[in-house]
Specification:
This protein folds into four domains: 38 residues; 55 residues, no CATH class; 306 residues, Carbamate kinase (3-Layer(aba) Sandwich), CATH 3.40.1160; 157 residues, Gcn5-related N-acetyltransferase (GNAT) (Aminopeptidase, 3-Layer(aba) Sandwich). The protein has 22 helices and 27 strands. An eight-stranded mixed β-sheet has the order 7-12-4-3-15-19-20-16, with helices on both faces. A seven-stranded mixed β-sheet has the order 21-22-23-24-25-27-26, sandwiched between helices. It has a two-stranded antiparallel ribbon with strand order 1-2.
């Protein structure tokens, strides 16, 4: 033991060495002692556990005599299949004495197992949750593939524990074929630096004046958040790139993809280096997308004269999305506040842009053309008096944040973006919102039903002229003018320049049923989504009035309704009052659709309004 310790220490002379040599010797001594300790524990594999004389393939091989057979299907389906084999074949295995005798005991056991299984009628197994999810997401994946999306990430989320998962989800949407533009903010980082330097920024109308000292901090923090996001995305894309370098090669590209201009002097205040987006370099961004890369934008924009301006990141995201004609824009929140219906207590998952505008007006939220937003947080005037109601007052930063996100979402929709999403920072929220029916956030969409209104007696002549060719062809049942005038409240028309281009009729029945009929689109306006729009409008009216079972009768256009989720049913499925007046001589086919909620209709709109 003493000899071993003496050799391990390198002798007394080595221990007295000076400088780097002495330190190196001590370091080697420690490593030697560690190695010695490791070598003294554990044991090699025994020869009865593995034959070390065999090749690597032989060492990992499975003995075929150790392989048994077990059924993975325990029910009998309508095709006469039992345990994955035709029932007749299983019977033959047990009945053929010659083959049984030739194959020995193993075949006899298989026959007995098959016979025993055939006596058990088990219910069909449940479809695994992942299979249901993946099948349900297939249409969304196909629809989003090839579309452009803009993601706005506030700088606060870089400190969030779930930022790695969020970046992974963003990379996954890229992998599934979406063309991405990411806008990253850095407001909290700038505020922290200014506070650390004891600099009190000048603000007017909630806008920070960016002087030269502040601009220096903005440059540093914008660079920081840019490289942080690039680093995270590089990690997320690493596995894909290494496995499929040629097919899925992608990078993160950042640069001068937009120009900015200054606020200038407003109400006597010089905003100096505070600016707003001037022009988005659309073609340059599309070239990056053609190379299968991701575009990353920061809040620093360069003017044609070479000046740098600090722009609002939310405004930049809305401007970029509108210029690119993006299919959607996604705003991530920090505090995760959603909208709720006060009367029902339910979370509001979707808003029409007109509803969102009314909400912003109610809370005095204004989005200005120069890329900034203001909120009057003193409350809302009520009809009873000038004193604001406590329920209607903006009481928390979370409420203000949500309203501002809604304001920027409306700004993006006004610029031509089709859909805007507001998502809370929860794990998996992005994937759930984009690839599932139920979603996870708030969807704000353009008003696809603009131009649709209830009909009045002045529309009878226009409706009659629109449907008469189909009545003469036998596609529609005759509707005399006097009957149409009597039932005019059940008709809805789609107008363009005061011309009726489509119409539909909606009737309610007992038991939550509603019938849609007389759905006609002018020949000159077909294949433009008018029929889908008026159908969707009528279906939403059904939901509002509590009818979730919608049916149509058709003799010619059955496939059109089948493609939109209707399924054929029998006459006995009609509500009693409608069944009593069903025309059996006409033999119209009946198609019915169950609507679970607004999200069903949102998904339906996604298909025809891509």
């Amino acid at each position: 033991m003493e000899d071993r310790q003496s050799r391990a220490s390198g002798g007394e002379g080595a221990a007295k060495g000076s400088g780097d040599d002495g330190a190196a010797a001590a370091d080697m001594s420690n490593k030697f002692n560690d190695t010695t300790a490791i070598n003294n524990v554990g044991s090699p594999l025994n020869s009865d556990e593995v034959d070390t004389s065999e090749t690597s393939a032989q060492m990992l091989a499975i003995d075929p005599a150790a392989i048994d057979f077990v059924s993975v299907i325990s029910h009998k389906d309508g095709n006469g299949l039992l345990n994955g084999l035709p029932a007749k074949e299983l019977e033959a295995i047990g009945d053929d004495d010659d083959e049984t005798s030739n194959t020995g005991a193993a075949s006899t056991e298989l026959s007995a197992a098959a016979a025993a299984t055939s006596e058990v009628e088990a219910p069909p197994p449940e479809i695994p949750a992942f299979v249901k999810m993946f099948r349900g997401s297939a249409n969304y994946i196909a629809n989003h593939r090839g579309t452009t999306a803009v993601y706005h990430i506030p700088g606060d989320l870089l400190e969030w524990d779930g930022i790695n998962d969020l970046i992974d989800d963003i990379a996954l949407t890229w992998l599934l074929g979406m063309k991405l533009v990411i806008v990253i903010g850095c407001r909290p980082q700038i505020d922290a630096r200014l506070d650390h330097k004891h600099i009190d920024p000048i603000r007017h109308s909630s806008i920070r004046v960016t002087d030269s000292d502040t601009l220096r901090i903005v440059k540093e923090e914008a660079g920081f958040v840019r490289f942080e996001v690039e680093r995270q995305l590089a990690r997320s894309l690493r596995v894909v790139k290494s496995a499929h370098e040629d097919e899925f090669s992608g990078n993160v590209v950042s640069g001068n993809f937009y120009s900015a201009q200054p606020f200038g002097v407003i109400d006597g205040v010089d905003y100096m280096y505070t600016g707003f987006p001037r022009r988005i370099e659309v073609e340059k961004i599309r070239q990056v997308h053609q190379a299968n890369d991701i575009v990353l934008l920061t809040t620093l924009g360069v003017s044609p004269s070479g000046e740098i301006f600090n722009v609002n990141s939310e405004s930049l995201a809305a401007t970029a999305a509108g210029s690119l004609g993006a299919s959607k824009i996604v705003y991530f929140t920090v505090r995760g506040t959603a909208f709720r219906n006060k009367e029902t207590g339910k979370i509001i998952q979707n808003l029409r842009v007109t509803d969102a505008r009314n909400l912003l007006q109610h809370y005095r939220v204004k989005i200005h053309s120069k890329g900034f937003a203001t909120v009057d947080d003193t409350g809302i005037d009520e009809t009873e008096g000038d004193k604001p109601s406590r329920d209607d007052m903006i009481q928390s930063p979370a409420t203000v944040e949500t309203l501002l996100k809604a304001g920027w979402a409306v700004s993006a929709l006004d610029r031509g973006v089709k859909r805007a999403h507001i998502l809370a920072p929860t794990n998996g929220a992005l994937l759930q919102e984009l690839y599932t029916r139920d979603g996870s956030g708030t969807l704000i969409s353009r008003d696809l039903y603009e131009g649709i209104r209830p009909a009045n007696v002045n529309d009878v002549a226009g409706i009659y002229d629109l449907i008469n060719p189909l009545v003469e062809a036998g596609t529609l049942v005759p509707r005399p003018r006097d009957v149409m005038e009597r039932d005019i409240r059940s008709y809805y028309v789609y107008t363009r320049d005061n011309l009726i281009v489509a119409c539909g009729q909606l009737k309610r029945f007992e038991g939550g049923f509603a019938e849609i009929g007389c759905l006609v689109v002018s020949r000159d306006y077909r294949s433009q989504g008018r029929g889908d729009a008026i159908l969707g409008y009528l279906e939403r009216l059904c939901l509002q009035c509590g009818a979730n079972k919608v049916f149509v009768l058709s003799t010619q256009t059955m496939e059109w309704f089948v493609e939109r989720g209707f399924a054929e049913v029998g006459v006995n499925q009609l509500p009693p009052s409608r069944r009593a007046v069903y025309n059996h001589s006409r033999r119209s086919k009946i198609y019915m659709k169950h609507i679970d909620g607004d999200r069903d209709l949102d998904a339906q709109e996604l298909w025809w309004n891509r």
